[in-house]
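CO-FOLDING WORKSHEET

Operator: S.A.
Ligand of interest: zinc ion
Run index: 248
Mode: holo prediction, single chain
Checklist:
[x] sequence pasted
[x] SMILES validated
[ ] output reviewed
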Amino acid sequence: MTPTTKIEFSERALKILKQEVEAIAAFHKRVRPQASSAAGALAAACALLNQRGRYCSVTAEHFDRLDFEGIQIIDALDEHLTKAIRALLKAFIEEHRRTPELKALRFLAEKLVVQLQELPPYPVAYMVLGSLHAALKAFQKLIDDGTSFDIEAIEHAFAHFLLGVVDKYVQTRERPGERHHSDIYREYVVVRRLKCGCGEEKYDVTMQALCHGAKGEPFDRLDLQCKACGARRSVTFDLPFFKDLEKM
Ligand SMILES: [Zn+2]
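OUTPUT RECEIVED:
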């Protein structure tokens, strides 16, 4: 096997990551007080979600959206954003322990679930953000069309519904073992989005190997070949949670 060097983030990528992680945290801190009511929590979650537009354009100024580094930056920021949205909704729900009206919850589940794409067992954060976006849009339409529920009751139920969507994701990123499997799953989702120089997004994974870096840290190497032009390249992924497996 040819020796492998881990692909590290460039200085520019690290700078964008640091700056945007801080921007998400600062924005989260600013909107957090709004989450004292269901309507406020939903508005704050929506405003947080809209932060994605900013970091996507900042990243796109320097990196191709479909190249390796650009995808990695956005995935990392998406994870931060999803966790911030979860923290916001959770804070609201823990503060307002009142159980939502079951009828309202059931009504929402019935009306909204059909409009959301089913997420894979280990979703990548952008998929979860996509679901949140679709749910918020569908909820707004339900409200505009008018329901028989009290607005406060339905908003409260919807905050629970949204927390359910993000919670499922965050758990796969926090539970030992699962977070490692979700890292592996994401590798393939990155490859699926990666664009070859010939203009196609059609890479085959020809080999996957577990490697070790200079300090013994494990990482994955994927060898890829473009189905359209045959060009080959390799990409590497950190495996920060590989150690979970040894403990199981
Ligand atoms: Zn190609």
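REVIEW:
Residues 11-174 form one domain.
Residues 196, 198, 200, 226, 228-229, 231 surround zinc ion (CB under 6 Å).
[x] output reviewed
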